[in-house]
Amino acid sequence: MKSQEEIETIAQMANAHSFISTFQDGYETECGERGVQMAGGQK
């Protein structure tokens, strides 16, 4: 299992950290099965 720091570093490398940070619960946000609660562009 990855540490929170590793997860955030990987998200930064994928240019996703700032996007994830906009969620109310940040990295703890549940996206639903297969990301069905997210718009196509967010996946």
Automatic annotation (TrEMBL):
Tree of life domain: Eukaryota
GO cellular component: membrane
Signal sequence extent: none
GO MF entries: ATPase-coupled transmembrane transporter activity
PANTHER family registered for this protein in UniProt: ATP-BINDING CASSETTE SUB-FAMILY B, MITOCHONDRIAL POTASSIUM CHANNEL ATP-BINDING SUBUNIT
Protein name: Uncharacterized protein
